Amino acid sequence: MDASMAAAPDERETDAGSLLSPDQLLAAIGGRLAEPLPLIAWARELGDLHAALISAVLNPRHSPDTTEAALHAEIGKVIDKINSWAAFYVRHSRCARRHTHSFGEVISHVAKTYAEAWWTVLHADCEELRHSAWVHLGEVREGYAQLIGDIRAGRVQLPLGWRGIGHTRRNGSPFPEQETDGSDAPDQGLHQQPHL
């Protein structure tokens, strides 16, 4: 467990202070909210990483030390931290409908949209494009607001999160227990159903 999550073990249930409001989240992503809460720090970090990712994609030679792959890996680590925090602090309603994304993925999506919208507003020549970016950020903000309302009301349950096959790669193999031996023969066990 992350040390920052151990601060208040008796406050497991979701309350008004556990989840950031849409305005708090956008302020945290933009670095305008400086309260010492882990979720605020992680939102800011995701905002910075997604902004750096825009630069790395648009100018790959400008900063060779910060590669696109490295930034994606760092984003994945922050998403994992948020998911671990959410597993402990966010209300889980067993009978609620399931959401498609983990809480960390949701926060990362808001941060990505925020970074891309601001980049577009500051750099795009097309007024219609700038307007579309701002409208999309507003839509994402409203979607987050509805999600937070649904979580608090017990109408939605978030998955714990999984970083996908790309995260489990080792030696070119998408499966952590399978070591590659240089042969191209597929593992016959991959098509068998797991025993439950």
Helix-strand blueprint:
Blueprint lengths: L21 H8 L8 H21 L9 H22 L7 E2 L4 H21 L3 H27 L2 E2 L7 H4 L28
Parallel strand pairs: 1-2
Helix pairs in contact: 1-2, 2-3, 2-4, 3-4, 4-5
Question: What's the gist of this structure?
Answer:
The protein is mainly α and 196 residues long. The protein is 53% helix and 2% strand. It is globular, with a radius of gyration of 19 Å.
Query: What is the straight-line distance between the termini?
Result: 27 Å
Level of helix content?
A: 40-55%
β-sheet strand percentage = under 5%
What would you report as the Rg, rounded to the nearest angstrom?
Answer: 19 Å
**Biggest sheet, spatial arrangement of strands:** 1-2
Order of helices and strands: HHHEHHEH
Mean pLDDT: 77
Could you list the spans in which at least 5 consecutive residues all have pLDDT below 50? 1-17, 169-196
Total number of strands = 2
By helix and strand content, what is the structural category?
A: mainly alpha
Report the sheet with the most strands, covering strand number, pairing sense and barrel closure.
2 strands, parallel
Tell me the overall shape: globular
Question: How many distinct helices?
Answer: 6
Keywords:
globular; 196 residues; mainly alpha; disordered N terminus; 6 helices
